[in-house]
TrEMBL record:
GO molecular function term, any single one: serine-type endopeptidase activity
Residues binding substrate: 109, 139, 211-213, 268-272
Protein name: Serine protease DegQ
Keywords, comma-separated and alphabetical: Hydrolase, Protease, Repeat, Serine protease, Signal
InterPro entries assigned: PDZ (IPR001478), PDZ_sf (IPR036034), Pept_S1C_Do (IPR011782), Peptidase_S1_PA (IPR009003), Peptidase_S1C (IPR001940)
The organism of origin for this protein: Tolumonas osonensis
NCBIfam families: degP_htrA_DO
């Protein structure tokens, strides 16, 4: 038996030139029952002006820790790590969803770490893009460009998709320029692939390759049904297994980013897994798909709504739930504060439960995502009941940018530019539209001081 290994290489499909690709070609049949099938050209001509090529550039910073024994030779002033900067460029794709305001959707991994983002339209115009916001867990980012005569693409309702529907993929594979491929919807609700943190993918056999990330997956009506994100295949080449983020997830996430500058993730507050045949039999139901609830967190949205351990969630807003991963992804992208209806099986009987989602707790984060001058610091919310509420410097690397700025471990950030800060969420909001200078109000022991970040 040959040991042929199909690498589950979840491509962060920014351009990494893999030349050995096995093309998977899928096309409409020439005729059905003796009647010619229509050409895809009218649909392609309609939507391709809304799909853009993206070129990003920046510098990747790497830190290599220096062994402690070297201090014996070089003294205490020796740095803890050797820092190197390496320039990089990457290619991807994007989709214009609002022509009037110039909003473009792409993948987070396409623009991650970029200092400069350039967008090329189908008509050849090159524009600089501004990053509005991003969400790493779902791999979505929103950009903005300023130009006249833009074309937008309408978002379809991805819940109406069926396996077997035709699909068209449009993007910038290998930097060749705008390319169109066709196929079908191979599967829905794909999760557990460890490609992203939140997964509810559309699977398609339309050819997707490196550089297609952030491009459009559209239906035969010319509507966006997904954002192409990743593929599975040996050596990073296409073998007809590609994945796209559903348009409904894209809509929910982009609306939150445009409104708040970030995703305010909703949570149920449960732990669980897939409904197996053994569990279904044990709990007296003939359902074969759903999400089994193992645990309900105290004071969570699910707890307040009356969800109990042992419940089986089989519907979300009237639509069947196929897996726990699908439920988690849909809930996480709906946004905090939304009310959903869960179809729950308890004691063999199905009932509807109304749940108002709570916001995910941002307990800790790397400070560098907020400001480059905070590199090397880790931030966390102050403990409940603490004498001073704010954002605590929980960890600090010696000789890091944050340390050089004057921060110390245990400092509590209580304000930004005279705006009071109580938690990480408020700190993110205050620093979202930062100018060239940010003044952090710090509580250090019994003293209060300001540190200026440039």
């Amino acid at each position: 038996m040959s040991n042929t290994r199909h690498l589950l290489s979840a491509l962060a499909l920014s351009l990494s030139m893999a030349l050995s690709v096995a093309p998977a070609q899928a096309a409409l049949p020439l005729s059905v029952n003796g009647q010619d099938m229509p050409s895809l050209a009218p649909v392609v001509e309609q939507v391709t002006p809304a799909v853009v090529n993206i070129l990003v550039s920046g510098k990747k910073v790497t830190r290599q820790e220096i062994p402690e024994q070297f201090r014996f030779f070089f003294g205490p002033d020796m740095p803890d790590a050797q820092v190197q900067e390496q320039p990089f460029q990457a290619l991807g794709s994007g989709v214009i969803i609002d022509a009037a305001k110039g909003y473009v959707i792409t993948n987070h991994h396409v623009i991650d770490g970029a200092d400069e983002i350039k967008v090329t339209l189908k008509d050849g115009r090159e524009l600089k893009a501004k990053k509005i916001g991003e969400d790493q867990q779902s791999d979505i980012a929103v950009l903005q460009i300023k130009a006249d005569n833009l074309t937008e693409i309408k978002l379809a309702n991805s819940e109406q998709l069926r396996v077997g529907d035709f699909a068209i993929a449009i993007g910038n594979p290998f930097g060749l320029g705008q390319t169109v491929t066709s196929g079908i919807i191979s599967a829905l609700g794909r999760s557990g692939l460890n490609i992203e943190n939140i997964e509810n993918f559309i699977q398609t056999d339309a050819a997707i390759n490196s550089g297609n990330s952030g491009g459009a997956l559209v239906n035969l009506n010319g509507e966006l049904i997904g954002i192409n994100t990743a593929i599975l295949g040996p050596n990073g080449g296409n073998i007809g297994i590609g994945f796209a983020i559903p348009s409904n997830m894209v809509r929910d996430l982009s609306e939150q980013i445009l409104k708040y500058g970030e995703v305010r993730r909703g949570v149920l507050g449960i732990m669980g897994g897939e409904l197996t045949s053994d569990l279904a039999k044990a709990f007296g139901t003939d359902k074969q798909q759903g999400a089994f609830v193992n645990q309900v967190m105290a004071n969570s949205a699910a707890d307040v709504a009356g969800i109990k351990p042992g419940d089986i969630i089989v519907k979300l807003n009237g639509k069947a739930v196929r897996s726990f991963g699908e439920l988690r992804a849909n809930i996480a992208t709906m946004g905090a504060g939304k009310t959903v209806t869960l179809g729950v099986i308890r004691d063999g009987k199905e009932q509807d439960v109304q749940v108002t989602l709570k916001q995910a707790d941002l307990s800790e984060t790397k400070a560098s995502v907020l400001h480059p001058a905070l590199e090397g610091a880790t931030l966390g919310n102050s403990e409940p009941g603490a004498s001073v509420t704010g954002v605590v410097i929980t960890q600090l690397e010696q000789r890091s940018a944050a340390a050089q700025a004057g921060l110390q471990k245990g400092d509590v950030i209580i304000g930004v530019n005279r705006t009071r800060i109580n938690n990480l969420q408020e700190l993110r909001t205050a620093m979202k539209n930062r100018g060239e200078i940010q003044a952090l109000n710090i509580r250090r022991g019994n003293a209060t001081l300001y540190l200026v970040l440039r």
